[in-house]
Write a structure and sequence with these properties.
- It is a single chain.
- The chain is an alpha+beta fold.
- It has three domains: 3-51 and 322-483, Multidrug efflux transporter AcrB transmembrane domain (Multidrug efflux transporter AcrB transmembrane fold, Up-down Bundle), CATH 1.20.1640.10; 58-126, Alpha-Beta Plaits (2-Layer Sandwich); 186-308, Gyrase A, domain 2.
- The protein has 15 helices and 16 strands.
- It has helices at 3-10, 13-30, 48-51, 73-83, 104-114, 127-143, 173-180, 229-241, 269-277, 290-306, 323-352, 355-379, 384-408, 417-447, 452-483, and strands at 53-60, 63-69, 88-92, 95-98, 116-123, 149-155, 161-169, 186-191, 197-202, 206-209, 213-214, 220-227, 252-257, 260-266, 282-289, 313-321.
- A four-stranded antiparallel β-sheet has the order 6-7-1-16. Strands 3-4-2-5 form a four-stranded antiparallel β-sheet, with helices on one face.
- Strand 11 and strand 12 (220-227) form a beta hairpin.
- Helix 12 packs antiparallel against helix 13 and helix 13 (384-408) packs antiparallel against helix 14 (417-447).
- The termini are close together.
Length: 485
Amino acid sequence: MSSDTLRAVFSDWRIILMTVLVAFSLASIYFVPFSPEKGVTGNLQLGLDLEGGAWIQLGFDAEVVRFATDRDRASFAADLDARLDGEILLIDDDRLEIRKSYTREELEAAFEAAGGTVVAYEQGVSESTASDIKRILEDKINSLGTRDARVNTISGMSGVTRYIRIELAGADIATAQDVVGQQGKFEIRIQTIGDTTEHVLFGDAITSVSTPSREPGSTLWGVGFTLDEDGAKAFRQAALTYGAVDNPEAHDLIMLLDDEVVYSAPLSPELAGDLRTSTVRSLSASTGAGDAGLEEAKNLEIHLRAGALPVDVSIAGSGSVSAALGEHFKTMSILAGLFALLAVAVVVYYRYREPLIVLPMVGTNMVEIVILLGIARYIQQLDLAAIAGIIAVLGTGIDQLVVITDEVLHEGGIPSPNLYQKRLLRALGIIVVAASTTIIAMLPLAVMDLSSLRGFAIVTILGVLIGVIITRPAYGKIIMALLSR
């Protein structure tokens, strides 16, 4: 190819855009952030299919009920709340969320007694409650420093969320169950007489938690936390009522997570003195000195931050992939991609028998996959379903390049520039229509919470968009320059 042809090709804005995106993608995968020890997968987010790990699916012990009544909605909900031993929320004018598990027959009897009827019944929680649960679990997982964790809600078409799925790459199933397989009910109680304790407050009264630290001039580790106004009043009232301000050593402050003691210690003399005269919102729990004190402080910080899930949960399913099996899947995925690319090259060469057509086609396909991986690195984990999406993009991409090539070739030769542009635009029009049908077909999988199928849909849609917007027009310019030389 002459220097003039090269200059014409690489001065086109479509080729420049494609080149910039390739550089960006390679930098994202291998150099940002910089690390001298990067394998072939670089910074790509790998799911537990390829990295090993565990998953847990939690079910919600609650239901969303659509109802009908002639009564005022708020008073009806209040009356129903008095009849059922569970928290009830009015979602909208004709739907209630009941945060306890009941059968439909039990609910129909209670609704009838309150002056209403059950229209529809679905186990699960509302979208708002599911978002709260997801946030609480993400906060808990992030505070543990677990890498490559993913929390996904699984909802139906009605918007009711029945399950939430937690995937922890690099963790075993026992660790995963310890992290998320519990409700996370945090409570502070105070010792009264002997081993008897009384409730003071729940975890929702804690507004902020600090990281473990040592007080100036002290070797003791501790965790600071802040109570809201109501929690501070309840804390002071309990300390005064049960004598903790007068005799702190006889009245330990006890913290429990799911009814198991995670911390127990008396009030400090300074705190006891302050509580005699006023409420105290900023508190600190001391855990001891040295590495043991620091480790206990870290664990206590997690418990303080965990919060309580608004509904009870139960483990509906779980599973794991060993690190060795994940490494095997990773190797096989790379080989599958390479074999797919090789197969594409062989088929294209068999059709055209012209290297000047085969090389740009295969090169464009490779560029498309590199850009796809570089962008997906920021938005999507790569599991086996996502790898299947990449291979699907590779196949549909070569189909569209064949459409362009066959359309622009005029009776085996290159048409005039004006005719070439018309044919290229017609080919791109065909490709846009085909891509639109693919995107429309994938959209339901992308927007619905169907676990790994969602990753397949997102990767496929992303690959189709990259092809239509970036690589197909660039290929049209390249093939024209190569074949007309």
